[in-house]
Amino acid sequence: MRHREPVADGPGWAAVIAESVPGASVRGVSRVGGGVVAETFAVDTSDGGVIVKRYPRRRSTTVQNEWERLSFAQRMDVPVPRPLALDAEGRWFGMPALAMTRLDGSPDVSPSNVDGWLQELASALAAIHATDTAGAGGALLRKSAVETWRPPKPRRPSTLVDHTVAAIQCHLPNVSWQPVLIHGDFHPGNTLWNDGKLTGIADWCESRLGPAAYELAYCRADVALLLDREAADRLTDHYVTAGGATPQDLPVFDLVCGLDALRKSARMLTAYRQQGRTDSPRQFADRASAFLRHTLAELGAPC
Fold this sequence. Notes:
Blueprint: E1 4-6, H1 11-20, E2 26-32, E3 39-45, E4 48-54, H2 60-72, E5 83-87, E6 97-101, H3 114-129, H4 159-171, E7 179-182, E8 191-194, E9 197-201, E10 208-211, H5 212-226, H6 229-241, H7 250-263, H8 265-273, H9 281-299
Helix pairs in contact: 3-6, 4-7, 4-9, 5-6, 5-7, 5-9, 7-9
């Protein structure tokens, strides 16, 4: 379960609830673990629960973009939080923040029924990608990370990283870029569950139009970190069965996302530990490396 730490009451919480749920009173505030960029809090009120996200001052544009993206996401056929109030100027806490409805459930990153878990993830992902994009504009039209990919600066000599970068540079210019609506950060840690059923998808701050296969690869890399490559492949099978288009150029996107997972595995582990995982840094790094080696072999590249 996602870790929740009680937070002291203060005038900021009363202010945000006054704008989010007029007439309600604050009953308790807890910090929710798992976030990396923003601080996330669960606020219990006399009229239901509210989620509040606070960003550093330099992220005022980020919070406005998340508001815009979350508003657009209301058209989706998936459980999405409803935006309630925005404070880009920092009136509530001295930093940018937004409030949204709290969905039922909690993260489940150690599933007991792995195949059912993968099927739920895949179905949600396919539904997002099938969303009507008419009227999309603003932040939703910004290029996805893979469309602006640049070789990372090497931290230490690594044959695996060198071969991965070379393969990406060789194949990425030729991939398909057919855009659909993507969540932008779709991974197990951003989903909520209740009794084995997916009940919500959180963190829409990176939503935009982009290639579906890239987002599938993004989730595959996290599944491989948490489980293994075989589970990532089953996720793909369920995605296609759920109505998602057969992913084009998936191995190339796997390399991009797998390399990112390898480089950020320690940071990702910190977030997943707040949601109950007990893996070691070596386990995460080894799984990410195995994911890359398998993909390089699939492409016929040296590894």
